[in-house]
Write a structure and sequence with these properties.
By secondary structure, the protein is an alpha/beta fold. About 30% of the residues lie in helices and about 30% in strands. The strands form four sheets. A six-stranded mixed β-sheet has the order 1-9-8-7-3-6, with helices on both faces. It is elongated, with a radius of gyration of 19 Å.
């Protein structure tokens, strides 16, 4: 499968960033987020579409998280509008655009989505890594640690330009009970918990980046 994400050939760099974001101390849950630029901003009544999460060739059904993201965004940024994902999928198909297969570099589809559905921005989440780490070696530093690495890319559909890029790494460590002779540890969570943490932290980071209102952009 061709590399379709911005900054082609830099998958290793993304993983390296995620690795650096990893925590060194012990905790039940931890999330590190790296995003650039710090401020994006928006104009009143612009429209943001949060797309579904992709993982290589598999599209994960995370419509519940999309609904949560839309609600969080509209509550904290009332001047920015969001679109219902499933309704947008249906309407876009009438114009030959398959939103569930949309990628940041499909410039023709991005233009059509803006022209026909008046969408200003599209947010593309990509699941880079999700692991249960069900190791049998209790001395392993990743023993029973659930983890996920998620990348979010914000694209302006008018220019097809990447405005914002974010990588989040979440880890859910096992619970440890100190016994008389040795410690017991177990992790009742799954890597889906780590994914959810990374997703929510990333959306909150996006909200802070877009929490700047421009009365009017230059040239329009």
């Amino acid at each position: 499968m061709k590399e379709f994400w911005p900054y082609p050939g830099k998958s290793r760099a993304i993983i390296a960033i995620a690795t650096m974001l990893g925590c060194t101390g012990y905790s039940c849950t931890s999330t590190r987020v790296a995003a650039y630029p710090r401020v994006v901003g928006h104009v009143n009544n612009e429209v943001l579409l949060v797309t579904d999460v992709t993982s290589e060739q598999t599209t994960l059904n995370r419509t519940d998280l999309i609904a949560w993201a839309n609600k969080a965004i509209t509550q904290k940024l009332p001047s920015l509008k969001t679109r219902d994902y499933m309704e947008t999928v249906y309407r876009a198909r009438q114009h030959g655009v398959h939103v569930e297969q949309l990628v940041p570099t499909d410039t023709a589809a991005l233009r059509a989505l803006h022209r026909h559905l008046n969408v200003t921005y599209a947010l593309f989440p990509r699941l880079i890594l999700q692991r249960e780490n069900e190791s049998r070696d209790p001395n392993s530093p990743s023993y029973d640690v659930r983890e996920a690495v998620l990348q979010l890319v914000l694209v302006d559909l008018r220019s097809q330009r990447v405005l914002w890029n974010c990588v989040a790494r979440s880890r859910v460590s096992p619970l440890v009970h100190e016994g008389r002779t040795f410690n017991y540890s177990f992790n009742p969570m799954s890597s889906n918990r780590a994914f959810t943490l990374a997703y929510r932290k990333s959306i909150n980071k996006l909200i802070r980046a877009m929490d700047f209102y421009y009365p009017q952009r230059e040239g329009g």
